[in-house]
Write a structure and sequence with these properties.
alpha+beta; 3-stranded antiparallel beta sheet; about 375 residues
Length: about 375
C-alpha cells in the first residue's frame, strides 16, 4: 500500500471542508487507505484539543474497514478542526495501521508500555480554573477534597496512554510553599523532576523513596531545613516532603489504598496554616519512613505536576472507577482525623479514618554540621 502524500491529503481534506457550504452531511464511499488518512487526521485533531470532550470534535468515523467512511461536514463542527489544521504534526499514513471499532482511539501495535511520559500538557485554562476555585482569603495552604473538584474533567487522547488505561483525570492534590527559602524551593523543583510523568502500572505498589533514591548533593539537592529529633536543623534535601505530601493528597483523593504514611513530628506551616488544614501531610526519610500506595484501578496511573505562584499541584490520570468523599478534620488537642469514603459501582464501600498525632516543637537548633538526609535516623524527616 503506497502512503498518501502530505500535500495531497491536505488538499483532499480542505476540499471536503468546502463541501460543507453546500451539504450539511455527506457519506463518502472510499477505499480503506483514504479512510485511514482521514481517521488519522481527526485523531490528531482530537489530541490537539485534549481537554475538550471528543463528541465536540468527532467529525469522522469508519463504519467498515473496507467500505463506508462517513464525514460529518456541518460547518459548526468543522470550525475547530479546520482552524487548527496547520498546527497539527501531520504525516501521511496507510490504512494498514487503522483497526478497531467505530470512534475508538486505537493503541499502537507492538509497542512497549510507557513507564514515564513527559510530553503531556495540562491545559492552562484548566489550571487557572482550578486555582480560581480553590483559592481562599484566609489561607494559601487550602486542602483540596474530591467534592470540591468533582466537576473538573480532563480527558486523555493519546492512543498509547489510553491503551494503558490512562484515560482521564482521577485525582488532585494541592499544597503551597510560600516563604520557602531559595534552597527549599530548589529541592522541591528538583524532586518534582524525579516524579513528573511517572507511570504506575496497574496492580503495583508505589514507593516514594524507591523512586527518589537519594536526597543528597549527588542527586542535585541542596541543604535546607529538615526535622531531626523533634528540632529544626539543616540537612540535605529539605523540602522534599512538600512533594511527598502533595503526591499523598492526590493518591488519597483518588481513593487509592495508602499502605505507608506518617505525619511530620510537629505541624509544619507549609502543610496547613489553619487548624482545619492539618493532618494531611506525609513525611519521608530515606532508609526509614516511606510513602506507599497501591494502584488497584483497572489501568495504569500517570502523575503530572503543575507549579504556579508557589503552589504545587499533582494530578493523577487513570481510569475512574470509584467515587471518593473526604470530610474533616476532627480535632482533639494535637490529634487530627480525616474521614474518607470510597464507593464502587457494585456497591462495595470503604469507610476509613486517617489519623495524625503531632508533638509540640522543641526550640529550633541550627547546627554547623548538617544532617545527611540519605543517612537519617528513624526520628528524622526531610520536611
Amino acid at each position: 500500500m503506497i502512503p498518501l502524500s502530505l500535500k495531497s491529503a491536505k488538499s483532499i481534506f480542505l476540499a471536503f471542508c468546502l463541501l460543507a457550504l453546500v451539504a450539511p452531511s455527506t457519506a463518502v464511499q472510499a477505499k480503506s487507505r483514504w479512510a485511514g488518512v482521514f481517521e488519522k487526521y481527526f485523531q490528531q485533531t482530537q489530541k490537539a484539543l485534549e481537554w475538550v470532550h471528543p463528541t465536540q470534535v468527532q467529525a469522522a468515523s469508519i463504519e467498515s474497514a473496507e467500505a463506508t467512511f462517513e464525514v460529518d461536514l456541518q460547518p459548526k463542527r468543522l470550525r475547530g478542526p479546520v482552524r487548527r489544521f496547520k498546527k497539527i504534526n501531520r504525516e501521511a499514513v496507510s490504512s494498514e495501521n487503522i483497526e478497531g471499532e467505530q470512534n475508538e482511539v486505537m493503541a499502537p501495535l507492538n509497542q512497549e508500555p510507557l513507564t514515564r511520559y513527559t510530553d503531556f500538557v495540562v491545559p492552562e485554562s484548566l489550571i487557572t480554573s482550578l486555582f480560581e476555585k480553590l483559592k481562599t482569603e484566609k489561607s494559601t495552604s487550602k486542602i483540596v477534597t474530591p467534592d470540591e473538584v468533582r466537576d473538573f474533567t480532563h480527558f486523555v487522547y493519546d492512543s498509547q496512554l489510553r491503551s494503558q488505561g490512562i484515560q482521564e483525570l482521577i485525582g488532585i492534590g494541592l499544597s503551597n510553599f510560600d516563604y520557602s527559602s531559595y534552597e527549599r524551593k530548589h529541592n522541591i523543583r528538583n524532586a518534582v523532576s524525579k516524579f513528573d510523568g511517572l507511570i504506575i502500572p496497574k496492580g503495583e505498589e508505589f514507593s516514594f523513596n524507591d523512586n527518589l533514591k537519594n536526597a543528597g548533593p549527588s542527586n542535585g539537592f541542596l541543604m535546607a531545613k529538615i526535622i531531626s529529633k523533634g528540632m529544626t536543623k539543616y540537612g540535605w534535601g529539605g523540602g522534599v516532603c512538600q512533594v511527598s505530601t502533595t503526591v499523598f493528597r492526590s493518591a488519597y483523593n483518588s481513593g487509592l489504598p495508602i499502605t505507608a504514611r506518617r505525619n511530620h513530628t510537629f505541624k509544619v506551616p507549609y502543610y496547613g496554616q489553619l487548624a482545619e488544614e492539618q493532618g494531611m501531610d506525609a513525611t519521608i526519610y530515606l532508609g526509614g519512613q516511606d510513602l506507599k500506595f497501591v494502584n488497584d484501578t483497572p489501568g495504569d496511573i500517570m502523575m503530572q505536576f503543575v507549579e504556579k505562584d508557589d503552589n504545587l499541584m499533582v494530578l493523577f490520570y487513570g481510569t475512574k472507577d470509584r467515587t471518593v468523599s473526604v470530610q474533616g478534620p476532627q480535632m482533639q488537642g494535637m490529634r487530627y482525623e480525616w474521614n474518607r469514603v470510597v464507593t464502587f459501582p457494585d456497591g462495595d464501600r470503604w469507610d476509613e479514618i486517617l489519623k495524625s498525632q503531632y508533638q509540640r516543637e522543641i526550640i529550633p537548633v541550627v547546627e554547623k554540621e548538617p544532617v545527611d538526609a540519605s543517612q537519617a535516623k528513624a526520628s528524622d524527616s526531610v520536611n
